[in-house]
Amino acid sequence: MTDTVVRFGVVGAGSVSVRGLLPHLSQPDLHDRLRLVAVCDPAPGRAEAAAAKFGCQYAFTDYSDMLAAGVVDAITIATPIGLHYEQGKMALDAGVHIHFNKTMTTTAAEATDLIERAATRGLKMVASPGEMLRPHNQRVKELIAAGAIGTLCWAACGAAFGRYHEEERVRGGADPLSNIDPTWYYRKPGGGPLYDMTVYSLHALTGILGPAKRVTAMSGVRLREREFAGKMHPVDADDNTLILIDFGDNLFALAYGTPAGRLTEGFAGSYFGTAGSIVGRKLNGEPFDYPGRDEAATHSQGDQILLPHVVGVHRDIEEQHVWEDIMQLVDWIRDDTPTIVTAEHARHVIEIIEAAYRAADTGQVQELATTF
Ligand SMILES: NC(=O)c1ccc[n+]([C@@H]2O[C@H](COP(=O)([O-])OP(=O)(O)OC[C@H]3O[C@@H](n4cnc5c(N)ncnc54)[C@H](O)[C@@H]3O)[C@@H](O)[C@H]2O)c1
Description:
This protein has 372 residues and is α/β, with parallel strands linked by helices. It has ten helices and 17 strands.
């Protein structure tokens, strides 16, 4: 354990930051480990308003200025996904450690470039979502490995966009911290439900089954316009994608990212074997046990409180899982404690998404090259 206090910056003072990351990072219980020193956002008045609200010394409207000022050791990148790669590169070039909100990048090649740059510079990167930190996902992995559902034959996972982002409570207001525009979620690069939501279930699926080998898919834009704040906005990022994933030895999975409708429960997958099934948190229809399950059942935030850093006041602040991933980075910087929330795992999931889009465009099955 070192006595290093990590000087932390938040890049993008949008929904996830205002509702979750800034409230977590500004709590006094962290002062022995980190200080929230800077926030950066180009939207008029947003960085200043966030800095004032969350007690942050520096507010920047320009990201380059923040890096050049040399006031942060580590950042969380909480901007639209299409900006993550360039912002990640700039941070590494400035010698800054990074937590990436999902997804780290939109292509595997970009992820590889960041991984190599970080290694060359001796910097650390943690890429959300750390789904395998969740005890129930570890338990599903153990159950399948122990043969609890016989020979595993296939799995399913995925998510639907719905109107989640339009309806977040920081979207419809009149001040800089509550008038945050979500329409980048409709546009390339980085928009659509795969990078935004299916990414959680793909992290769990691959965390449980291991790296995949091949992908094919059908994909397109089903809803050509979406309504936000009384106006219609064009959609050009695919919003309706069905993916088939080959894990080798004829073990297959279906993954989906759609405008509406779900086959599976939450972001948890369904696993079907010769001796039964695991669907969400049930084994053959009965809830299975995992560490902390009964305590979580009594808490309003449920399983979120089972993540290792979600203690005390952090239990009741939103976006606990993102906060957890940030603390995985902070521990890694301070104590050299390695994390399972790796950039390599994120890259493999990004490759699955990218390969699905390419398969849909070309009609050709795509071989995957990355592993973790
Ligand atoms: N909204 C959620 O529920 C949620 C939850 C978990 C993770 N995330 C992830 O967090 C990230 C941000 O999502 P969000 O929903 O908060 O987006 P958002 O649109 O609400 O906020 C993005 C912010 O980034 C700012 N920004 C744009 N360009 C910038 C730049 N060059 N430098 C600095 N800031 C810039 C925008 O002004 C905006 O304030 C994404 O990676 C997303 O996948 C979102």
